[in-house]
C-alpha cells in the first residue's frame, strides 16, 4: 500500500471515529431527554390520578353533606348533632380531609365537623362563600376550588373545595365546604423519590398554588407547559428554560398538577457516558496513530517486494489459465463420454432384448413341438441358461445406469407392510422347500422412498438370506430409530467372516463360489443393492458372526401415517415382480393350448422375426392373430375385416415416428372401444411406465416369458365372446 493511501486511510478513520463518537453522544443526549420527557409525563399522570382520587373523595363528602342538609329540619337539634357526628366520622377516615363545614345562605357557619354546636362565625368574605353567593363575576360554579388557607403549623395548610345547595328556583340554601390538607400531597410527593431537584405542585385553573413539594420551594406555574383545553390528555413533557416540565389538568376538576426537574440533573448520567465515549474514542485514535506509524514504516518495505510479487502473480495467472483450460477440456470430454454411455445403454437395453424375446418365443414353441424326453430335458436346460443370461443382462444394465447416474428416482410416501408381504410371498415357497421358517413381523409404519427402487434392494437381501441359510429361519422386521425406520433381515445361515464384510459389496464377488457356479448368480446383487441404497440416501449395513448368521439393515425416513381413509381408497405402492419370476400356480395352470381360443389379438411389431414368433405363439394358444408392422397397417386390417380385436400386443419403438403407446390410443379412438393393450418393449423408462399406466396399458419388459405373455392376454380378455 502506498504511503498516500495510508495517510488517506488514517484521516478517514479518524474522521469516522470522531463523527461516530459525536453522533453517538448526540443520539444518547436525545434519547436521554426523550426518556425523561416520557418519565415526567408519566409522573404527571400519576399525580393526576392521585390528586383526582383525593379530590373525588372530598367531593363525595360534600355531596353526602348536601343530601343531609336538604333533608335537615333545623328545628330538630338532635338531627344537627347526628349530621355533625357523621361528618366528623367520615372526615377522620380520610387523611386528605382536614375538616368539613357548612354555611347558610348568608355565609354564617351552620355546621362544623370539629365541634357542635359550632361557634357563631361569619365566613361570607371567604372566596368559596363569595363564589357561591354570587359576589364574583361569572355563573356560580358546580365545584369550587378555593385558595390556600394557612394552618396551625409552619408547614401546614389546606385548600378548600365546596358545593352549593339550591332550591328549585336556583336560590341559595346552603354551602358545603371541605378542607383538603396540602400536607397529604407533600408527604406523598416527598416519599416518591423524584430526585433532589424535582418540583411538584398543584394549582387551580387560575394558577393559584394549592400544594407543593418541597415545602416553600416557590414553584411557579409554567408558561409553555401550562395545559390548554385543546391539548391531548397524554401529551409529553416540555423543556422550558432550564427545567423539563409536565402539566396535566385533572379530569372533571379545575386543578392542574405540575412536575418539573432541572435539565442539569436529568442530563447528569448522559454527561458521564459522554465522557466515557470521548475517552474510548481518544484511546482508539491513539492506538490507530501508533498503527499508522508502524504501517507507514512498513509501506517502504512493501514497495520493495511489490515488483517481485507482481512478476510471481503474472506467472501464477498464466498457470491458472492453462489449468482452467485443461479442466474445461476434461469436463467436456467427461460430458461427451457420459452422453455416449447413455446412448450405448439405451441401445443395449433395446437391441439386446429384441433377439432375446424372439429366442424365448421360438424356444417355447420348439419345446411344445418336441415330444422327445431328451429334447425336453435339453430345452429345460436351455431355458435355464436363457433366464440366467437375461438376469445377467438386467443386472449389467442396472449397474451401468447407476454408474452413469441416469437411474430415475420417484420418491413418495407409502406403507411398508404391503411391500414386505409381497417379498415374503415370492420367497416363501423356496424357504419352505428348504425347511426354513420365513417370518415377517407386522408393522404399521409409513416411509418415504421410491418403492420401485426399494423393492429390489429388499428382495436381494431377503433372497440371499434364504439362499445362504441351511436350517433355522429368516426374520424380517422394522424398528423405529429416531426419525428413521430400520428394516432388518435376520438369518441363521453360515455367516460372513469379518475380513469379507467390506468386499461383499463389490461387483462379481461371491462368498464360497470360487468355481463361479452360474446357478448361484453373477455376484452383482449386493453391489446393485448398495449403489441403489446410496442413490436413495438409505444407509445399508451388515453385521455377522460366522456360524451364527447375519443381519442386513436398511434405514428409511419414517413419516407419520396419514388420516385413515375408507379401506377401499387406501393407495398401495406400485410393486413389480422380479425378473423371470416363476408364474403363480393359478396362472401356470392356464398354459395349456387353446386358452386364448376365440380371442383376436392385434400384433404390431416392425421386426419380422419378432412378429413371426409372436404370431406363432398366439396361434398355438388358439388366438386369431392380425399381424402388422405399423399401426397404419393395423388400422387398415381392422377396417377391412370390420372386426375390432380383443386385445392389442404392440412394440413401443416403431418406424415412421409413431410409438406404440400413441398408436394404441389412436386405434382405440378410431374403433370407439377401450381395447385392452399390452406394450412389449425393451425400453426401461420410468416415464414410459407412468404414461402407459395413465393410458390404461400394461407394460412387459423384453424378453418376457412366453407363458407370461399368454397369461397376461388371457387375463385381459377373460370373458370375451369368441364371436366378438
UniProtKB/TrEMBL annotation:
It catalyses: ATP + protein L-histidine = ADP + protein N-phospho-L-histidine. This is histidine kinase. PROSITE patterns: HIS_KIN, RESPONSE_REGULATORY. InterPro entries: CheY-like_superfamily, HATPase_C_sf, HATPase_dom, His_kinase_dom, HisK_dim/P_dom, HisK_dim/P_sf, Sig_transdc_His_kin-like_C, Sig_transdc_resp-reg_receiver. Residues 347-560 form the Histidine kinase domain. Pfam families: HATPase_c, HisKA, Response_reg. It comes from the Bacteria. Residues 563-592 are annotated as: Disordered. GO terms for molecular function: ATP binding. The keyword Protease does not apply. Keywords: ATP-binding, Kinase, Nucleotide-binding, Phosphoprotein, Transferase. Residues 600-717 form the Response regulatory domain. Its EC number is 2.7.13.3. The keyword Manganese does not apply. The modification 4-aspartylphosphate is found at residue 651. Residues 582-591 have a biased composition (Low complexity).
Amino acid at each position: 500500500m502506498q504511503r498516500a493511501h495510508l495517510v488517506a486511510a488514517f484521516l478517514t478513520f479518524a474522521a469516522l471515529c470522531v463523527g461516530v463518537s459525536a453522533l453517538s453522544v448526540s443520539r444518547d443526549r436525545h434519547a436521554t431527554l426523550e426518556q425523561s420527557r416520557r418519565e415526567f409525563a408519566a409522573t404527571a399522570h400519576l399525580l393526576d390520578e392521585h390528586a383526582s382520587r383525593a379530590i373525588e373523595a372530598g367531593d363525595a363528602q360534600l355531596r353526602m353533606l348536601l343530601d343531609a342538609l336538604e333533608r335537615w329540619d333545623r328545628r330538630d337539634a338532635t338531627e344537627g348533632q347526628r349530621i355533625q357526628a357523621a361528618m366528623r366520622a367520615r372526615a377522620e377516615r380520610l387523611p386528605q380531609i382536614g375538616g368539613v363545614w357548612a354555611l347558610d345562605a348568608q355565609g354564617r357557619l351552620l355546621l362544623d365537623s370539629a365541634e357542635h354546636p359550632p361557634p357563631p362565625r361569619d365566613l361570607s368574605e371567604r372566596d368559596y362563600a363569595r363564589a357561591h353567593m354570587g359576589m364574583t363575576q361569572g355563573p356560580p360554579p358546580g365545584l369550587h376550588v378555593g385558595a390556600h388557607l394557612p394552618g396551625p403549623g409552619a408547614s401546614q395548610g389546606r385548600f378548600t373545595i365546596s358545593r352549593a345547595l339550591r332550591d328549585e328556583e336556583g336560590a341559595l340554601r346552603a354551602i358545603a365546604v371541605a378542607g383538603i390538607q396540602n400536607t397529604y400531597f407533600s408527604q406523598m410527593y416527598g416519599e416518591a423519590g423524584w430526585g433532589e431537584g424535582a418540583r411538584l405542585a398543584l394549582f387551580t385553573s387560575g394558577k393559584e398554588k394549592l400544594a407543593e413539594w418541597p415545602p416553600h420551594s416557590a414553584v411557579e406555574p409554567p408558561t409553555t407547559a401550562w395545559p390548554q383545553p385543546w391539548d391531548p390528555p397524554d401529551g409529553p413533557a416540555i423543556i422550558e428554560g432550564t427545567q423539563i416540565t409536565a402539566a396535566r389538568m385533572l379530569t372533571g376538576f379545575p386543578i392542574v398538577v405540575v412536575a418539573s426537574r432541572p435539565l442539569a440533573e436529568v442530563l447528569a448520567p448522559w454527561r458521564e457516558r459522554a465522557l466515557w465515549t470521548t475517552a474510548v474514542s481518544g484511546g482508539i485514535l491513539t492506538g490507530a496513530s501508533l498503527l499508522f506509524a508502524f504501517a507507514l514504516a512498513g509501506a517502504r518495505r512493501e514497495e520493495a517486494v511489490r515488483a517481485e510479487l507482481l512478476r510471481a502473480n503474472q506467472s501464477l495467472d498464466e498457470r491458472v489459465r492453462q489449468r482452467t483450460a485443461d479442466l474445461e477440456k476434461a469436463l467436456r470430454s467427461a460430458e461427451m463420454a457420459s452422453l455416449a454411455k447413455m446412448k450405448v445403454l439405451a441401445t443395449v437395453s433395446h437391441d439386446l432384448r429384441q433377439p432375446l424375446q424372439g429366442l424365448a418365443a421360438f424356444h417355447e414353441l420348439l419345446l411344445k413341438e418336441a415330444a422327445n424326453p431328451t429334447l425336453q430335458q435339453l430345452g429345460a436346460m436351455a431355458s435355464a441358461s436363457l433366464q440366467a443370461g437375461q438376469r445377467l443382462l438386467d443386472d449389467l444394465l442396472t449397474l451401468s445406469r447407476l454408474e452413469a447416474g441416469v437411474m430415475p428416482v420417484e420418491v413418495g410416501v407409502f406403507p411398508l407392510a404391503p411391500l414386505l408381504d409381497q417379498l415374503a410371498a415370492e420367497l416363501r415357497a423356496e424357504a419352505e422347500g428348504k425347511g426354513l421358517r420365513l417370518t415377517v413381523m407386522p408393522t404399521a409404519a409409513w416411509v418415504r422412498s421410491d418403492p420401485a427402487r426399494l423393492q429390489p434392494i429388499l428382495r436381494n437381501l431377503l433372497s440371499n438370506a434364504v439362499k445362504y441359510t441351511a436350517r433355522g429361519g429368516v426374520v424380517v422386521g422394522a424398528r423405529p430409530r429416531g426419525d428413521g425406520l430400520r428394516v432388518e433381515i435376520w438369518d441363521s445361515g453360515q455367516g460372513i467372516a469379518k475380513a469379507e464384510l467390506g468386499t461383499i459389496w463389490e461387483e462379481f464377488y461371491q462368498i464360497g463360489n470360487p468355481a463361479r457356479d452360474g446357478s448361484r448368480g453373477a455376484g452383482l446383487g449386493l453391489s446393485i443393492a448398495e449403489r441403489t441404497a446410496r442413490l436413495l440416501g438409505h444407509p445399508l449395513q451388515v453385521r455377522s458372526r460366522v456360524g451364527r448368521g447375519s443381519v442386513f439393515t436398511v434405514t428409511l425416513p419414517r413419516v407419520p401415517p396419514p388420516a385413515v381413509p375408507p379401506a377401499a381408497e387406501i393407495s398401495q405402492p406400485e410393486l413389480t415382480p422380479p425378473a423371470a419370476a416363476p408364474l403363480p400356480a393359478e396362472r401356470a395352470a392356464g398354459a395349456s393350448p387353446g386358452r386364448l381360443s376365440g380371442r383376436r389379438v392385434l400384433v404390431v411389431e416392425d421386426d419380422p422375426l419378432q412378429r413371426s414368433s409372436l404370431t406363432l405363439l398366439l396361434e398355438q394358444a388358439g388366438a386369431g392373430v392380425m399381424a402388422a408392422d405399423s399401426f397404419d397397417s393395423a388400422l387398415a386390417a381392422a377396417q377391412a375385416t370390420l372386426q375390432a380385436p380383443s386385445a392389442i400386443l404392440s412394440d413401443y419403438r416403431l418406424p415412421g415416428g409413431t410409438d406404440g403407446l400413441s398408436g394404441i390410443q389412436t386405434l382405440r379412438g378410431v374403433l370407439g372401444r377401450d381395447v385392452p393393450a399390452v406394450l412389449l418393449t425393451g425400453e426401461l423408462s420410468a416415464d414410459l411406465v407412468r404414461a402407459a399406466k395413465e393410458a390404461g396399458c400394461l407394460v412387459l419388459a423384453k424378453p418376457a416369458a412366453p407363458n407370461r405373455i399368454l397369461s397376461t392376454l388371457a387375463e385381459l380378455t377373460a370373458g370375451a365372446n369368441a364371436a366378438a
